[in-house]
Specification:
The protein has four helices and four strands; from the N terminus they run βαβαβααβ. It has one domain: Alpha-Beta Plaits, CATH 3.30.70. It is of the alpha+beta class and about 120 residues long. The longest helix is centred in the first third of the chain and has 17 residues. It is globular, with a radius of gyration of 15 Å.
Length: about 120
């Protein structure tokens, strides 16, 4: 079954264009190293009918946009191989300098997920 890295983060509205540019670079990098899919989504409707809304879960404040993102791999082993290559790629280090990050990395949530329904 497929494996997914999932992310939940907040980006200041005034930095969303910079974040989108960074996300496009990251998408190219992960796909070049073998990721099957790379998606970044900006929240549009956070009025939850049940459970906790993503905005509250992410700790979004006024003037921030919630981003939900994921990367798809063939398996956990495939994910580990791809991420090893990505982490060794000098382009990633250039993209992730503290001065260039358009969001607070400490507020980002991340995890690896085994797909159990793929309909």
């Amino acid at each position: 079954m497929k494996y997914i890295d999932g992310f939940l983060l907040v980006v200041p509205k005034k930095k969303m264009a910079a974040y989108a540019a960074l996300a496009k670079q990251a998408a190219r990098l992960w796909k070049q190293h073998g990721a099957l899919e790379y998606r970044e989504c900006a929240a549009e409707d956070l009025r939850a009918q049940c459970g906790m809304p993503f905005g509250k879960r992410a700790g979004a404040k006024a003037g921030e946009i919630v981003v939900f993102a994921w990367i798809v791999y063939r398996s956990r082993a495939h994910r580990d191989r791809v991420n090893k290559k990505v982490m060794a790629d000098p382009r990633l280090a250039a993209m992730c300098s503290p001065d260039s990050m358009p969001f607070d990395v400490a507020r980002m949530s991340h995890g690896g997920f085994q797909v159990f329904v793929d309909a």
